Amino acid sequence: MGSLDKESQFTARRQQTNNQHDLTFGKVLLQLARNTIWRHLDDKENLSHQFTNHPAPGDRSGVFVTLWGQSSTKQPGVASDYDELRGCIGRLQSNMPLNEAVQEAAIGAATRDPRFVPITLRELKDVRIEIAILSPLAFVHDLQQLVIGKHGLMIEGGGRRGLLLPKVAVRMNWDQRSFLEGVCMKAGLVPSEWPSNSTLYSFTTVVFDERDYD
After folding, report:
1. What pTM, to 2 d.p., does this model score?
2. In a domain, 212, yes or no
């Protein structure tokens, strides 16, 4: 019951954010992330930033920052959708204020994602930033509970953990079963280990994308 209450509170605050301050709040968050990366790459310092008069959908929610680069197959003279993953780092849950969590995740996505070489200062202007604020986790007992495009997944078992954001399932054109298989692969687990030897959670997100502010 507690997790449902937290989810309801998150949903209410998300609706408040979306209805009242979504454009302004998102713009502030995205600019904070970009400025933080720029300052870190330029002189290895973080920025401090305080929010005022902007309700957050979760004061100490989990946060992921995703960086998108220009496609390596981009044709000359054709506008880029900045749809090639360049880095993604975040926290499932946070014990720090939202602005600090965004700063930490932004620097991590730019410099510490082991799948990619670090972003350079010169490259930063050609990177699109996306921020996802996570709701509290909810147990998944049945895959039919999942709504593709709405829910993200996190699985843990055997000392391993994997997480996929909601838009991954959409980009990959997955159904619920495929989504489970994908998050198991991310964790280094096999799907047959759920539900007997692993625990599956869902979550929702509030997403702010620089593409929406062009």
Report:
1. 0.80
2. no
